[in-house]
Amino acid sequence: MTWRASVLTLFPAMFPGPLGQSLAGRALDTGVWSLDITQIRDFTQDRHKTVDDAPFGGGAGMVLRPDVIDAALNHVADGRPILCLSPRGRRFCQADAVHLSAIDGVVLLCGRYEGIDQRVIDARGIEEVSLGDYVLSGGEPAALVLLDAVIRLLPGVMGAADSAAEESFSHGLLEYPHYTRPAEWCGRRVPDVLLSGNHGAVAAWRREQSEEITQHRRPDLWVAYNAASHGLMTKGRLP
Ligand code: JCQ
Q1: Which pTM value belongs to this model?
Q2: Which atom, in ligand 1's list, is nearest to the CA of 137?
Q3: How far, in Å, is the centroid of ligand 1 from the Cα of 169?
Q4: What's the CA-to-centroid distance between 85 and ligand 1, angstroms?
Q5: Domain with 50 in it: what CATH number?
Q6: Same domain, 110 and 185
Q7: Among the four 72, 103, 154, 205, which has the fewest Cβ within 10 Å?
Q8: Ligand 1 centroid from CA 8, angstroms
Q9: CA of 111, closest atom in ligand 1
């Protein structure tokens, strides 16, 4: 019933961090989800507590040792998927968050240095996932983002209004622009249609805005959206 997150890290003080606040923090307090943190360094064998070493074949940076990572995983792994946050991973998306929210939980391995010895990734079936094409100094901030994306989907975490907003984004377009009071601010007026009380006209305007902004900012989403044949009926391009 409680969704379980286990995190393996060299920097346990980074958790729960922002996930201890707001919606996620309340859900953590009420047992909707749980978080256990494992210090990878606790699973070293030598008196210097060595977690990494130089890469075979030479090159810059250090690599996390497979024996240390394996011993740390033995402490938490129980059939839940093991994910490692890495720029070389498959791109994480909303559908992945939805999938993870529907299972028992997840084990997140936070890498540092140049990476993790490939043998433990292969032996443990660790899935490498990326949040985007940039390099962080460690997997921890990415793990926090991934967990936020999942936790907000757990039953009872988010309100009904937010769930509705979720729906509209999941349909493949970016959100239309939002406005609230005052109706005029610094000489800038809210679009008249939004004050018209004409719900059909409002919906049509928002749809146009969503399509336009998606075309310009995210041509990749726009192509996928049209390939899925969304909106063709309503726009009169199909019988
Ligand atoms: C995650 N997008 C970027 C950095 C190596 C496991 O090996 C490494 C992990 C990191 C941290 O993750 C990211 C990241 N999604 O930088 C270098």
Answers
A1: 0.95
A2: 4
A3: 27
A4: 5
A5: 3.40.1280.10
A6: no
A7: 103
A8: 14
A9: 6
Substitution candidate for ligand 1 out of 85, 128, 130, 148 with most atoms within 8 A of CB = 85
For residue 123 the two structure tokens come to 């032996």
Domain count, the chain: 2
| CB neighbourhood size of 200 (10 A) | 8
Encode pLDDT of 106-142 as tens digits: 999 999 878 999 999 999 999 999 999 999 999 999 9
The C-alpha atoms of residue 89 and residue 84 are separated, in whole angstroms, by: 8
The one-character DSSP state at 190 is: P
Q: What is the mean pLDDT of residues 73-101?
A: 98
Distance CA 239, CA 21 (A): 50
Cite the beta strand spans of the chain per DSSP E: 3-9, 33-39, 52-53, 63-64, 82-91, 105-110, 115-116, 127-130, 184-185, 188-189
In a domain, 117, yes or no: yes
